[in-house]
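# nightly structure sweep
# worker-07 picked up a monomer target from the shared queue
# config: single-sequence mode, recycle default, output format = structure tokens
# input follows
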Amino acid sequence: AFAVPMLGFAAMDETTNRPVALVGLMGAGKSSVARVLGERLGASVADLDTMIEAGEGGSIAELFERSGEAWFRRREGELLGQVLRQGVRVIACGGGLVTDAKHRRELRERCTVVWLEVTPAEAARRVSAQAAPPAGVRPLLAGGAPESRRRELLAGRETLYAEVAHVRVPTDGRDAGQVADAVLRALAGGT
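# output follows
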């Protein structure tokens, strides 16, 4: 499988100088691919989830419990604006950032957005391989089998990811380096 440019999107020229924002489900590889892209491009990288955890002094699960999802989504949006103002070139977005219309608009207008597509089964496999401690379990994945919860999340977010994405890159069966290569080819106009 290769990168799939979005239909109707004119040559990537109009977004070439924009930062690259990676979106997709948890387990798509956004954080890992962002690091590899940053290294290959010699560019600054921001991981919004990591920034929130470091800045607020807790895991995402703890922050959801302490402050709620609405607060968390607002904070994600604030950090997105901050890293864009700072000139960060590669952004790993939280999987739910696209649930807010204002954030989708900002992503679409100010970034070249790459949807890292992953099947729920592959996402569940990747995350379970990381063997996160219980405190690290993402709150929106609680209360069900990992694959089925991801399937539900994807069903609710798929149209939102498609709305913001300039490019879609399948990630199943690829490591972060291979996905980064596919992203770079897609951004250069290849497949």
